[in-house]
Amino acid sequence: MPLQKFERILVAIVNPSAGMNKAIRRASALARSTGASIELFNAIPSAMSLGSMHSAAEQFTRFEAAQNRRMLERMANRMRREELIVSTNVQTGNPVHTAILRQVRISKSDLLVIEARKHNIFARLLLTQTDFELIRHCPVPLLIVKGRAAWRSPRILAALDPFHSNDKPSALDGEIIAAADAVADLVRGLVHAVHIYLPLRSYIADLPMAPVALAGVATQEKAHAQSVRRRFFGDLGRYGIPKNRGHLVGGDPAIELPRLARSLRAGLIVMGAVSRSGLKRIFIGNTAERVLDSLKCDVLVVRP
């Protein structure tokens, strides 16, 4: 299985005045390991796109763009002193995620890096609507930086789905492992794999005859768990991951995945974006949104 290569890294920056944020630092560390080039990119909502034809609004947008370019260049010059290859770019567009995705394609980036931000001083690190649009549509792996600490031989948790639920293609797990292996190779990390499955009682609880159905579910539950275990650990063998680094957990993914990540002190989780049944577009459901918002470590999202 070929490793994912990261040669052109695009860092989407919301607020250049914040200086060297976590996303820039993470991208710099990866670039030092790979020799990759970095593009610092800032997208400003366009006054024209917002329907405002007032010349003062357009003038303010041009002023803001020039100011942001200067701030990006100051950061780029600091990074260049470390012999990193860095370029800067400021574009206007609306909505912002469209401008970012356009730049991913123009620059032929193979990794997009963004930072999860606190909405206020008391809030958790929550993803914005722009972040979720990038998860849905980004054609390359998307690294969402949440953790502040540097990666030092981190545990990397690959979230697999051996039963390919939600219409995930069977090749996606292989791509998740390839991405996890690529990062592990760069930062001397160790790849673990996890599958969170729903017990049968979770499906039965919503049925009209739930109490009757649950009374006879014990045997079926055991058979279900054994079937999942055989499939999951069988797949681990194909990916070269030893069983002691495989984690099979029954329960709610939004609860169990963050809990396991904390238990392992994982520095990164690699997840797959999923497609809705019968539709071509990528979507993020309520469970995935809760998982992403609950995680405290970095997340690398891989599309099929």
What report would you give on this structure?
- This protein has 304 residues and is of the alpha/beta class.
- It has 10 helices and 14 strands.
- The strands form 3 sheets. Strands 3-2-1-4-7-14-11-8-9-10 form a 10-stranded mixed sheet, with helices on both faces.
- Helix 2 links the parallel strand 2 and strand 3.
- The longest helix is centred in the N-terminal third of the chain and has 26 residues, at 55-80.
- The chain is elongated.
Domain tally: 2
- Kindly report the average pLDDT value: 83
- Quick one: biggest sheet? 10 strands, mixed
Low-confidence parts? 275-284
Task: Just name the CATH architecture of the largest domain.
Answer: 3-Layer(aba) Sandwich
DSSP helix count? 10
Q: How would you spell out the order of helices and strands?
A: EHEHEHEEEHEEHEHHHEHEEEHE
How many β-strands, per DSSP?
14
Q: Structural class of the secondary structure composition?
A: alpha/beta
Identify the CATH class of the largest domain. Alpha Beta
Name the assembly state.
single chain
Amino-to-carboxy terminus distance = 15 Å
- Beta content comes to 15-25%
Shape label: elongated
